[in-house]
Amino acid sequence: MIKLQITAFIAVFFMTASMMILPVPTETEQLQMQREYVAKQMQQKEQLADLEVKRIADAYARMSDAERLRGDAEVLY
């Protein structure tokens, strides 16, 4: 029980110290960080989509002509 209290005290101490040392970001800095985060997330989603398209294209390229015709016929009808 005492160890838990000591650990909590140490955590709060370091959190308080870091909040006093690190500057608080301004509103424009926060907005910029949000924009960068959103842009990074969108870029990752685009990369995943590109990989999925490549995977499907590779699978299609490995198919035989008969499999392609049958698959295209299933899609059309």
Summarize the structure.
The chain is 88% helix and 0% strand.
Oligomer: single chain
Radius of gyration: 27 Å
Strands, count: 0
**Average pLDDT value?**
86
Integer tally of domains: 1
Low-confidence stretches: none
Largest sheet: none
| Morphology | elongated
Given the structure, what is the number of helices? Answer: 3
Structural class: mainly alpha
| Terminal-residue CA separation | 70 Å
Q: Helices and strands, in N-to-C order? A: HHH
Helix content: over 70%
Residues in β-strands, percent: under 5%
How would you describe this structure in keywords?
88% helix, transmembrane, 3 helices, membrane, transmembrane helix, 77 residues
Question: Care to describe what's here?
Answer:
- Keywords: Membrane, Transmembrane, Transmembrane helix.
- The protein is mainly α and 77 residues long.
- The protein has one domain.
- The chain contains 3 helices and no strands.
- It is elongated.
- The termini are far apart.
Topology, please?
Elements (H helix, E strand, L loop, with lengths): L1 H20 L5 H36 L2 H12 L1
